[in-house]
Amino acid sequence: MIFYYSGCGNSRHVAEQLAARLEQKLVFIPQAARQGEYDYALAEGESLGFVFPIYSWQPPRLVLDFVGRLRLAVTPAYIYMVCTYGDDAGMADHMLAKTLAQKGLRLDAAFGVAMPNTYVNMSFMNIDSPEVTQRKLARAEEMLPLLTRFIQERRKVVELKRGMFPRTKTYAIGAGFNRSLSDKAYCATDACVSCGRCAEVCPLQNIALVDGKPRWHGHCTHCEACYHYCPQHAIQYGRATRGKGQYHYSD
């Protein structure tokens, strides 16, 4: 079984590919959480995977919250995570391992896949160039068969890029990022045509159209789906996103 979360599609693609290759069931974490589905029965000897993007060198809080509430009738024979990131993962695997350990479970392996950048809510951050985007996507496709084999062989390894100063990034910068998450700066410009795409793609169903314009309701994870999927490029995050490009994974 594979539990996954994705905003702009990078992690969704990786999860879908692994599920198909490993012939495992996929569970979308936000949907399961909305429905209060935390009880799962794994087959004897079945592996358990978690696939998610890295948000400021941490797993998304909704992923950790879900794992903290997860109830398994059978202890998995092998537990692994696959994270996607623009640059590096910091100590994100340690955070997931700690959450699992509180439930008496052990993280056996952690894998990382570099994918195109999606976070643009800071003035110095933007999407990757077309050349870098294509290079990352091509490399990710090359990695998928190897990841599949490692998981099938149940390798107990850590294969991800931590980057420089990983503890500072995860436990200081990442913690500050998650404490300060807010959707108050999101807005729609006059280019908005009231298509509702932003509300449709929001994984947390945090957006609704009010008088034809999107309104955010305070449960944002900064996944950026509303910004990147908007066909009119009408969603902005204050001044930080002005003039920046859009990217989402497209099959």
Measured between the Cα atoms of the first and last residue, the distance is 23 Å
Helicity level: 25-40%
- Average of pLDDT: 96
Oligomer: single chain
Enumerate how many helices there are, as a single number: 8
The share of residues in extended strands comes to: 15-25%
- The side-by-side strand order for the widest beta sheet comes to 2-1-4-6-7-8
Biggest beta sheet summary: 6 strands, parallel
CATH class of the largest domain: Alpha Beta
Structural class: alpha/beta
How would you describe this structure to a colleague?
- By secondary structure, this protein is an alpha/beta fold.
- Helix content is 34%, strand content 19%.
- It has two domains: 2-178, Rossmann fold; 186-237, Alpha-Beta Plaits, CATH 3.30.70.20.
- It starts with a strand and ends in a 14-residue tail after the last strand.
- β1 (2-4), α1 and β2 (26-28) form a beta-alpha-beta unit.
- The chain contains eight helices and twelve strands.
- α1 packs parallel to α5.
- A six-stranded parallel beta sheet has the order 2-1-4-6-7-8. Strands 3-5 form a two-stranded parallel sheet. A two-stranded antiparallel sheet has the order 9-12.
- It is globular.
